[in-house]
Amino acid sequence: MGTLIVGASVAGVRTAQALRGRGYTDSITMLGEERHSPYDKPPISKEMLGHGAGTPVPLLTAEQLVELDVDLRLGVRAESLDLVNRSVTASDGQTYPFDDLVIATGVSPRTLPGSDGLQGVHTLRTADDAEAVRSQLMTATDVVVIGAGFIGAEFAAAARSHGVRVDVVEPQTIPMSHILGEEVGAELSRLHILNDVTMHTGVGVAALVGDGQVDGVTLTDGRTLRADLVVVGIGADPTTGWLESSGLPLDNGVVCDERLRAEGAERVYAAGDVARWPSPHADGLVRIEHWTNANEHGAVVAASIMGADAPAPAPPYVWSDQYGQRIQIVGRPAAGELARSVGAVDSPPFAAIYTSPEGRVVGALVVDDPRLFMKCRKAITAGSMVGDLDMVPGLDLAT
Description:
Layout: E1 3-6, H1 10-21, E2 28-32, H2 62-68, E3 71-74, E4 78-82, E5 87-90, E6 95-97, E7 100-103, E8 107-109, E9 121-122, H3 127-137, E10 142-146, H4 150-161, E11 165-170, H5 177-194, E12 198-201, E13 205-210, E14 214-219, E15 224-226, E16 229-232, E17 236-238, E18 254-255, E19 268-270, E20 275-276, H6 291-306, E21 317-322, E22 325-331, E23 337-344, E24 347-355, E25 361-367, H7 370-382, H8 386-390
Parallel strand pairs: 1-2, 1-7, 2-3, 7-19, 9-16, 10-11, 10-16, 11-12, 18-20
Antiparallel strand pairs: 4-5, 5-6, 8-17, 13-14, 14-15, 21-22, 22-25, 23-24, 24-25
Helix pairs in contact: 1-6
């Protein structure tokens, strides 16, 4: 029966590649809910919304897919898991048996109440989403972005590149402050203002306005913003509905051990955004929605299936491209306090270093300085003290 991988995005594909790379010769079947051949997710809110072709970026070439020797079933959604009979029932009416099961179903974006059936309101999670949004950007004049996280921020930057007017609505008084603190959150928010985006912070959405087609967004303070296109970026939830009757432990994702083995289930694993596991870089169980995390999980799951040693997890890492600038975050800034900062977003490089109470570097944000970013990444991996970064030649991290 071999291995069944449910999910054909980064975590699922990297698991299949890692298995073959370790010499796995049994069959691999992969179910993908989307109609597209496996594609990369970061370009959805970046390149696919730009002025180029707007097509998905493949994770594998046609030749690589053939060499991988995977039975890839596209447009097939998993509907239930039977752990007793070790099989998955899917939307195509078939039942897929397995020896080993890898759950890599990712997350599903949250939506706003009242958005069903209202044209011009979108989430941004799939290639089809990006295609629909990009098409409307060609004719839109007034765009409202709900949420100032990375998805919302990247879309705002893409929309400005098309010359449209952009309003961003964010419930937090200072965007990203829950992760980066108020000082750094305010600096990143200033990047939007410098690019003529209007920020509405400390306010929520009361209602979407429109009859069949959105034409406005009413805020909780009573104002209404004009809008012929609305993109909602208010977070996502793990796609585990199909597992609710399975008996697997579900708690904000599939609960796993350090080898990504689902708790209480034999030869069942989870990878990527859907996995909640005890990362050595966190206190307790975490679920990390980063491309790099999904990429690395493939190697861990493959090693677990093969009974081999797994690679040590790297510190969490995420990047974002906004207004021609590269923002990189490594480690866990929210687990520390801002200890050092240098520069500004309008005169990069800009950097912020976060430390534990004893002064060890636990997180960093760096804008437009790849060399400094690599130094910070090494410092976090090594558990270095912030004073070690102060002594980097040419770097002035004044308090």
